[in-house]
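Researcher: Please translate sequence to structure tokens.
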Amino acid sequence: MKLRPLLACVMGMLMAGCQWLPAIDGHRGNFQGLNCLGGIPDFTQDECLLDDWVAYGLASQQGDAEWREAMLAQLEADIEEPRADQRLARAMVLAWGDDAQRSQASSLLHADLGVAPVNLQPLLSYWLGELEQRREANARLAEARRARRASGQQSGALQAEVDTLNSQVEALTTKIEALTEIERNINARQHRE
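Model: Translation complete:
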């Protein structure tokens, strides 16, 4: 299964945190002066590149429709030709919207994944894989519901497929919540140091 090595790499990166990156100006592990986890992330290569993107992805996941609208408006403000990092930040917000927004997020991720910094690409690839799995599960669920409505019958096999799809959606949600909790623990540990 190709997803397991990628997941292992992402989890390793998430657990490592900023303190394992090379020291800059002799300040290894001193993050009190850093502004990690704030604002819309970009591709600026600093100690918190990965942490900024993870925090933004988590905020996108946890944000409601109003938050997403505000972020999309902020990303579109005064930008005639958005940069790749801005398009990827937009994709993170759209990934948790409706079907059309998820489709647009997938297109943006596919288009700009290759121009992201190398150390950020595994995380973005993982998010793209999760997005595609959610899109596929939602599409199958919608198709199963349409088929059930069209037939007017609730056959045991169709109900089993709906139950399976609901279980898959719940499993993906549980995975994402577990990753969120891991990231919170990492951030809490970093802020205590």
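Researcher: Any highlights?
Model: The two ends are 37 Å apart (CA to CA).
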